[in-house]
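the two lines:
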Amino acid sequence: MSLKQRYLDNLPLEEAQARYRAHLLSVGFGPKAETIPVRSACGRVLTRAVYAAICAPHYNASAMDGVAVKAKATFGASEQTPLTLQPEDYTVVDTGDPLPEGADAVIMVEDLIDKGDGVYEILSSVRPWQNVRQVGEDLCMGDMIAPSGTTLTPALCGALLAGGVTQVEVRKVPVVGIIPTGDEIVAPTSDPQPGDIIEFNSTVFCGMLESWGAKAVVYPIVKDKRDAIRAMLRQAVSDCDLVLVSAGSSAGRDDYTCEIIRSEGTVTVHGIAIKPGKPAVLGEVDGKAVVGLPGYPVSAIVVMEEIVRGLVALAGGKAEKAPQTLDCVLSKKIVSSLKYKEFVRVTIGKIGSRWSASPLPRGAGVISSFTKADGMLVIDQNCEGIEAGETVPVRLLRSKDELEHTLVVTGSHDPLIDEVTDLLRQNGEPFRVSSTHVGSSGAISAVKAGLAHLGGIHLLDTATGEYNKSYLKQHFPDGGAVLVPGVGRVQGLMVKKGNPCGIRSFADVARVRYVNRQRGAGTRVLCDYLLQQNGLSPQQIEGYDNVEFTHTAVAALIAAGNADAGLGIYAAAKIYDLDFIPICTETYEFLVREESLHDPMVEAFFRVLRSEACRKRLLEMGGYQLTKENTYADTSE
Amino acid sequence: MSLKQRYLDNLPLEEAQARYRAHLLSVGFGPKAETIPVRSACGRVLTRAVYAAICAPHYNASAMDGVAVKAKATFGASEQTPLTLQPEDYTVVDTGDPLPEGADAVIMVEDLIDKGDGVYEILSSVRPWQNVRQVGEDLCMGDMIAPSGTTLTPALCGALLAGGVTQVEVRKVPVVGIIPTGDEIVAPTSDPQPGDIIEFNSTVFCGMLESWGAKAVVYPIVKDKRDAIRAMLRQAVSDCDLVLVSAGSSAGRDDYTCEIIRSEGTVTVHGIAIKPGKPAVLGEVDGKAVVGLPGYPVSAIVVMEEIVRGLVALAGGKAEKAPQTLDCVLSKKIVSSLKYKEFVRVTIGKIGSRWSASPLPRGAGVISSFTKADGMLVIDQNCEGIEAGETVPVRLLRSKDELEHTLVVTGSHDPLIDEVTDLLRQNGEPFRVSSTHVGSSGAISAVKAGLAHLGGIHLLDTATGEYNKSYLKQHFPDGGAVLVPGVGRVQGLMVKKGNPCGIRSFADVARVRYVNRQRGAGTRVLCDYLLQQNGLSPQQIEGYDNVEFTHTAVAALIAAGNADAGLGIYAAAKIYDLDFIPICTETYEFLVREESLHDPMVEAFFRVLRSEACRKRLLEMGGYQLTKENTYADTSE
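prediction for all of em together
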């Protein structure tokens, strides 16, 4: 490959969509029809009007259990002048039975007086066609049962069958093939080798495609070999309406997707001015759409939403629905490049009557940012960013109803919040919990700004040695928020099993590689306090600027050997089988706005926090001191 | 069976539901769990919290294409003091590659100056862990990925796989078995024999069950034989969580459902105070719910909605959603019995800003009433009825959005309305058409009352021989509505092929069995006019009171031999291969309120009515005279 080919286009999204659509329409890409049995057609869309082939009922049917008669023969019957029916005057019929030749009415069994020997007496006459479901009562042959474009409901399928229609022409469900590529890609496993990349993108794509009404077919993983990819692409193009080639869509050493699509067909666009998602390939082979997707999951998801969703709609003959949006107040300034239209995942919270949106990490590799995301903020290419406090429309990834029933918890990371969440769900509480880790200082700002119901904090006042209280006074001088007791928990230094660096006290971190917590975290405040106590300056600590956002992230880096020591809670050390040098016991409390205290969600949260089930879980995790206020016993190790 | 057993309970619905639920809970009926691969778990609900089994990434991965180095070794590099990297100082890495032992940073390929022989120069240093995705950047081992009760989204499935989780415990999808029973029941066909009842209920049930998140299994049709039904029920109870026995749920000669369920388990309720749907059996066998459903489709659908939907929710561990309702003005008085809670299908129309609901036929056998229904009006047992003009909450069977985009056409029956509807859908117009047959007089009332956008009318002024105009003047003396040209169409007498009764003119109907149209129909006005012209009185006409609502229904009865003659349009006679004796050509026009004239839906309707495509269809149907206003050519036969 020449150096020139290594550069991608940077086409504005709308132009890329329009060019691609125009090309696909020019080669006949679009909805197809198929004929299927009505019995399996529920939910499908008719491509042409359907008319009743027969009447329903298709014969004159008795509507009652009784006897079929000629109505005229009963005229004149009354209480004064009863009429006698001889066996030759009637035929016994059950509901649904066809009327015999000559009969045109049914007398209900309740109206027959049994005289024995098959002789009945009646005290009133019947009208012609009384108690009879005449031919066509429900549907008449030739009547249109449903026009083109109708989505078949269960009742409509019933009506079609009743009308003698057993097959219908419906829009074909678009079949989308997914080809995962890459030398490092392995099938899902819980025991990958270093360098193995677990292939989960195809599972994500399948779920998205199925929710859009397409059928997904996943092909076997293909190595980064031109011929292998080409052969699989050929196969998929012949099987499917649309083909997604996963990864290899950029312009690196092993990125063959674009080259192969071009050699087999046409590439309309290579590179879109979106972030994440730039290195996408929009191509066509044999009239089928072929899209090269970036390998990073978040990038791929954005391309799926912005490009592939529209293709599925086009292939399925459906109008693309505009995404639902909600106006939210942005909690934090976002800077955006003029080079791209940017897609930022956000959490959404409703505190009181105000909707707010808070940006999540923007890394393209971070699939977990999508699992926490409640919405997507789209920043136009010609916009340099959005200020905190601005009201912006956010595309919803969850229903508004679900978001209205969400308890927003933020602040210092502690796994106990997840455990309480799980117990709330197990109890069937009708709300979800959205939890983010912004540190103890972040919790104070968020509760102050009305961005969260609760904030977990553990902030040491280095002047008094007391936790939290002075911060409350400082930030809420006029009241308005209270501290609700949480737990005591043991903080300490986490080091590799066996303590290979021989760390004895905090002073020893000066001679090893440290991993720190982010600015604003309570654990960072503790670190700075301990440095000061030990007469150390940040510059003396290697790794002081290597920051993580959670206790488990710090533990993971020590376990991986990226660092030798870090502060964290016992529960994190235990998960990673690290040695733990206790340093202090801190008071982890919840900051709550006064007006939220009696919110049923907040009440349920604290009820569960103080439950026996929660106590059991915390004991199992270890390192928690259950405070007196919680009637918890001391369990420090 | 004794006579006593022929009577059913008449338990109020809420009591039947409560008793049945209590019984089922007492025998352990409820949600179950199963463990399935994450790859096929999208949309499923977690029964327990899931934690990351590994970190993601699970190794330190290069975030760029470039060379991996020890960061410290690059310190000091600058434009003034370039640094040289010898081949032993670095390792070439692609994005995603693991960092080799000892390396802790990556220099991007763009920042390398190639000096040949594998020697590179750099003009800036890299920080430790720069351009590296450290272990756990996305997910940390031990972190809770999702709590109990979470519905798995595509992104969550991706996160689970990224976290090394390949299997999850989820709520089992309830499996519902359907046993169709009945001697007369046959599989769907377009050529049934007299007495054959096409089995379409199971298709309706499958569609409903699947829309509620259950899996449906349809067993083969079983004859009305105790042992055969019992054996099939045993099989279904062992395979499924819930079993529906279709038909035989009442107390007639061949109704075995209740008796068999009772002999195999428990019957909690037999007979619910609802209409339609009374003869339902609520039972239990071996801890599985077994419901006997009425054979009439509309009754069965009501029992499905009111009873089975709740059971599926209970078995699936889901909260039952309250149905969406919309307040509508009732267009017509409804009388209801104090013996039942009644479920009335209605059409819903929005004309201007006013929502109205109009009752559909209430027959339990009329599946087509469900296909036309937009909503369900529920009338409490203690309510004797609802007056026209009252505002009532109606349960929606279509989305409010779809109903907002609905053109409401009513009035005299003519198949051309269905054809125009179909053409509108084929053109991709973004609205649907709701069309009901209430006769020409009904059209005037409906347009007057603001219940419809358009009304099709063909009303002869017997004094002038002119159509429609005098009626417009009479009903809209101050204006407010206009007549829009429709078509001319030939009315005539339909008689059996070959005219076996030798009918020559309308006077001949006095000596045969006639089938009439309903009061208010334009064709009824014509009939009465012709009777008068011929000096005949209604009493002289056999079948004058045998009325139908459409031209095809009249044709169907003549074809079936239920009547010998009836008035109707040529198109209907043609479908049923009847002989046709032309009587007159009438002016079929559309009555439109002035303010609706420029409604885009109304405009589209008339645009399509005057299109070449519509003209072609009308020519094919036959018997239409395309009026001058329509620039249609004369095509009378």
